[in-house]
């Protein structure tokens, strides 16, 4: 194998596939990055067996030559060293050559690295996925779907299924749901596929987070292929494979209250900042809660009390307070997480009493719902 | 105590004095910040008993009113909460009022915090320092003196005296020396004081690092008052006290070779980057060294070898190679540390053989010297 490649493109591809490489793997060769040079270009692969990422650099793009292949071939190089080395190379082009016994030479300017490589034939194969049925979602929408749900997955392995996001496709609509059983995030999106195609899978939260990091912010379509055990995201020159979680995702539809007893509409930023301030003292208390008191036609008050340190209270101007008077306590972290992913200047919060889950939405937008379970303090 | 203050100035002062506050103190009141409102303005004090910082906000600056004092007084507030609270207050002004039993109200807009304070009379007094003899150094020079030496102090408590920087004043010259016994940094500066005034003290490295962080980059003079046990740095509106280290600093003058057998002059940036690249593989090896080979009238080669991973070799263009041929090994970290604080496009390295300490300097600048002990590998 021997080729010359643009350094900036090499660095970018290596950084992308590096996101799948774990140093804590039990399969030694997976601490490496597989490099395959063919007549069309060079591909890089990283994997921790849960997630696999392949990045392809074509020989040419438009009129620009990016890679010059002198001899096709393949090698596996230690990911940690290879990625740090390419970042620090002195010149704009890099020559990579495999010699005898997998010894690999990396040359750039006067710097010459010799790395001991491994046989690429020993590297596990990527999952084989047949793709007659792909879902297409624009990259920026996909990144939003992920951002607005993935933060709510469980971080505990007690119920492994809750560490993933449930993707359910029915009636040409995608429904993404994440919950850690204390709060729930739900996001819908219309899909341009036949009504009779349906899926119901759980994608690990970690996979979605890593996927989001390597996707650029643009409107190009990402092809998504879902099988029984794997999902494949195909963006421009990048393939992202993730295994799916085993098991049935709990039915969460019954959790979401259909009516409400108290409704408030407030300025998102003011509300978020008041919660943030109240959380400064909440953190210290054993309960770690802030309290919200709403008196219809009067005012909303956010407060928190930590006997040893002190207390904080703040009145919030509400655009609307309707229904019953309410005193409710909740985790400020969950509220801040939810507010941060809601778009729009105003938010609507719908309560059904101090002991029942409540909903946070943007007025007039039914595609995204955030739900939080209150904390019993009264 | 009751006063109203500009939020941005309050935040700045609190952040400055916070640098002296440690959460691991054995004196509970030192986890707090002391606030004293007088007719002239408000002062804030933080201390971990090694370092004490006082920041003063005057009532007025030029024509601008910064503080309105309604009632003088004093209080101690928990540093961690107070500093986070003031950062997150909603409006540009903040009212702070002490009520009964040290209960302190912090108001800004509609947000109101109640913090349990402590009696300011219980707060330890700052060291009393008589200041008939101050040294004056421009802030930017002082920051350079610190930056170019403090990185070389020892981080081990085996020889506590080496965790500080030796400041020696003689013949109107300040000599700052730091060493961890593997490398040494030395910086000189002319002072505008009488020739017969002399000092020889050791300032803890940590104190100098924190001092540097709170000094702005400007040319205003800092007054430095040195006593037997304390040093006081007086910048505009900030007093910075540090205890001195007990004991005698070792005499390091004999360490510095007076002649050399091999001299090289190289481009600083090229040399630094080559060392940085070589260090990528050096880290892995047990020795953690890079090797430099100089052949007079020919070339310089930087290399490193880590049998399991691979090796790297790079030729460097030298502006000058004089004297004997040389092969020497050293820690790339020490070399990078030294190169980062040297100013100028070129550096001169003077060797006296593979087993002897070598010097790194900027050509034609005798005010700064970096010394490194080589590692025996041949």
Automatic annotation (TrEMBL), chains A, B:
Per the record, its GO cellular-component terms are: cytoplasm; DNA polymerase III complex
Q: Which family does it belong to?
A: Belongs to the beta sliding clamp family.
What are the residue boundaries of the DNA polymerase III beta sliding clamp central domain, all occurrences included?
A: 136-251
User: Could you tell me which CDD domains the record lists for this protein?
Assistant: beta_clamp
Picking any one GO biological process from the record gives: DNA strand elongation involved in DNA replication
Q: Where is the DNA polymerase III beta sliding clamp C-terminal domain?
A: 254-376
Its protein name is Beta sliding clamp
Cited NCBIfam families: dnan
What organism is this sequence from?
Bacillus subtilis
The record, for SUPFAM superfamilies, names: DNA clamp (SSF55979)
Q: Which residues cross the membrane?
A: none
The principal location of this protein is cytoplasm
Q: Name one GO molecular function term.
A: DNA binding
Please provide the record's keywords in A-Z order.
Cytoplasm, DNA replication, DNA-binding, DNA-directed DNA polymerase, Nucleotidyltransferase, Transferase
Organism domain of life: Bacteria
Q: What does this protein do?
A: Confers DNA tethering and processivity to DNA polymerases and other proteins. Acts as a clamp, forming a ring around DNA (a reaction catalyzed by the clamp-loading complex) which diffuses in an ATP-independent manner freely and bidirectionally along dsDNA. Initially characterized for its ability to contact the catalytic subunit of DNA polymerase III (Pol III), a complex, multichain enzyme responsible for most of the replicative synthesis in bacteria; Pol III exhibits 3'-5' exonuclease proofreading activity.
Q: State its location(s).
A: Cytoplasm
Assembly behavior: Forms a ring-shaped head-to-tail homodimer around DNA.
Q: Which residues form the DNA polymerase III beta sliding clamp N-terminal domain?
A: 1-127
């Amino acid at each position: 194998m021997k080729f010359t490649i643009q350094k900036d493109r090499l660095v970018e591809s290596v950084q992308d596939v590096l996101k799948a490489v774990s140093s804590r793997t039990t399969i030694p060769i997976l601490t490496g990055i597989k490099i395959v040079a063919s007549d069309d270009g060079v591909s890089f692969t990283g994997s921790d067996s849960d997630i696999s990422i392949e990045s392809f650099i074509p020989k040419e793009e438009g009129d620009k030559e990016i890679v010059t292949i002198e001899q096709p071939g393949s090698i596996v190089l230690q990911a940690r060293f290879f990625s740090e080395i390419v970042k620090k190379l002195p010149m704009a082009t890099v020559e990579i050559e495999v010699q005898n016994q997998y010894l690999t030479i990396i040359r750039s300017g006067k710097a010459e690295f010799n790395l001991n490589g491994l046989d690429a034939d020993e590297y596990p194969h990527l999952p084989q996925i047949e793709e007659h049925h792909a879902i297409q979602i624009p990259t920026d929408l996909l990144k939003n779907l992920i951002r607005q749900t993935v933060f709510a997955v469980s971080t505990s392995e007690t119920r492994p299924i809750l560490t993933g996001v449930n993707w359910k496709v029915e009636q040409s609509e995608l429904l993404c749901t994440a919950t850690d059983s204390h709060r729930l995030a739900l996001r819908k999106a219309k899909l341009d596929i036949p009504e009779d195609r349906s899926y119901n899978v759980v994608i690990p939260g970690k996979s979605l987070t890593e996927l989001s990091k390597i996707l650029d912010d643009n409107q190009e379509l990402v092809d998504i292929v879902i099988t029984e055990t794997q999902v494949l995201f195909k963006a421009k020159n990048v393939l992202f494979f993730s295994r799916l979680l085993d098991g049935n995702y709990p039915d969460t539809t019954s959790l979401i209250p259909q009516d409400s007893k108290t409704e408030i509409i407030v300025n998102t930023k003011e509300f978020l900042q008041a919660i943030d301030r109240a959380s400064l003292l909440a953190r210290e208390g054993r309960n770690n809660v802030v309290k919200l008191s709403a008196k219809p036609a009067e005012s909303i008050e956010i407060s928190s009390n930590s006997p040893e340190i002190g207390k904080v209270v703040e009145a919030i101007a509400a655009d609307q307070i309707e229904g019953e008077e309410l005193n409710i306590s909740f985790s400020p972290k969950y509220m801040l997480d939810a507010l941060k992913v809601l778009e729009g200047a105003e938010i609507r919060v719908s309560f059904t009493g101090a002991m029942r889950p409540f909903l946070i939405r943007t007025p007039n937008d039914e595609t995204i719902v955030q739900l939080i379970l209150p904390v019993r303090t009264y």
